[in-house]
Design goal:
The structure is a single chain. By secondary structure, the protein is mostly helical. The chain has 17 helices and no strands. Helix 3 packs across helix 6, helix 4 packs across helix 5 and helix 7 runs parallel beside helix 10. It starts with about 30 loop residues before the first helix and ends with a helix.
Length: about 350
């Protein structure tokens, strides 16, 4: 097909285009129909979401988790309804993006609209209209542009804006991830010990920068290193066991006896207590909005009481932990209690869970 004097041909059929006359943008196609057909052809040639690089669902889910953590912090900080709604909508938007990305990836793997519709509890027609390939791509492109904007700020005040007693360390915002909780607890011990990072590095024969990254949550130390750090900082490492295992994604092994289960739960709670700089029982009571009495909080942290799960769950949340990480420990106590024939242990559990 020969080109016209201007060297321009239709981008779809290759037919010569008439020479441009007058101002304005030059035509690229014979007519509107050819322009649309060329666009559809380009879209078919573009990889679908989930092809050639995988679905962005994991990255979106991680961002939703981060935003949910900020929402939780804002709720505990007593932020106003407007701020809470704004943060909740940010979480919901990421959830919508996640669902769109996963539907697009599922379609790229050959899933039928009927199966997708059943999974999300809508009609096939609704699913097809809501998550078409073009719509999913536009949604994710829109998200990519929005990601260039500044992220949601942290709450203006501390997570729990409580009255600070004289000589007490300022309350610190709760860590969101397991690694951050471990780092916060170790950092608290380091500050209380008065030892500099360089001194700790010398005693562990590690570089100061590596110790600094551990205390900031950038690196996750091994259990042996956690024990070594606790020895240097003058603290019992048992309280760090669950924090360390959670940071490494290791499930807590089942316990054999009731007393061991109680010790495990108590140590895990004390680890959380360290991670938020050891607030007093009165401060924790206020963090629970008065739902857990001061006396019960003190007993639980001493290992003298194991209250009902509703109480333990509230306490874990008030200390910045994930209730789902602690419920197996609490359940193990009751399971071990049911399996034991030791009357002394039975009396202990009866007293602590009553």
């Amino acid at each position: 097909m020969t080109k016209d004097a201007a060297g321009r041909v239709c981008g779809f059929c290759g037919a010569p285009l008439p020479a441009a006359s007058g101002p304005g943008r030059r035509r690229s196609y014979c007519d509107e129909g050819h322009r649309r057909q060329a666009q559809r052809l380009r879209e078919r040639e573009r990889p679908a979401v989930g092809q050639g690089g995988g679905s962005p669902g994991h990255e979106i889910a991680a961002e939703a988790h981060r935003l949910a953590g900020l929402l939780l912090e804002a709720a505990y900080a007593g932020e106003g309804l407007g701020e809470l709604v704004r943060r909740a909508r940010a979480v919901q938007q990421e959830v919508d993006f996640f669902l769109a990305a996963e539907v697009g990836a599922d379609r790229a793997r050959g899933a039928r609209w009927e199966d997708i519709a059943k999974a999300v509890n809508v009609t096939a027609e609704t699913a097809r209209n809501k998550w078409s390939q073009d719509r999913v791509r536009r949604l994710l492109d829109h998200r990519a542009v929005a990601q260039r904007a500044a992220p949601l700020p942290s709450p203006r005040s501390a997570v729990f804006p409580l009255q600070q007693g004289e000589g007490q360390e300022p309350l610190r915002p709760m860590a969101v991830t397991a690694r951050q909780r471990l780092a916060a607890a170790l950092s608290y011990l380091q500050r209380k010990s008065g030892l500099s990072i360089r001194v700790i590095a010398d005693r562990t024969m590690l570089s100061p920068s590596f110790i600094s990254r551990i205390l900031s949550g950038e690196r996750t130390p091994s259990w042996d290193l956690v024990c070594h750090l606790c020895s240097i900082l003058g603290h019992e490492p048992g309280e760090f066991r669950l924090l360390c295992e959670a940071a490494h994604g290791v499930e807590q092994p089942p316990r054999q006896t009731v007393t061991e289960c109680i010790a495990s739960l108590t140590s895990a709670l004390r680890g959380l207590h360290l991670a938020v700089a050891r607030p007093t029982a009165e401060e924790i009571h206020r963090r629970t909005h008065g739902r857990v009495p001061v006396q019960v909080i003190a007993q639980v942290l001493r290992g003298d009481a194991v209250p009902e799960w509703e109480v333990v769950g509230v306490l874990v949340t008030a200390l910045g932990g994930q209730a789902a990480d602690f419920k197996p420990l609490w359940e193990a106590i009751h399971y071990s209690f049911l399996m034991t024939d030791d009357p002394c242990v039975s009396d202990l559990v009866s007293e602590t869970t009553g």
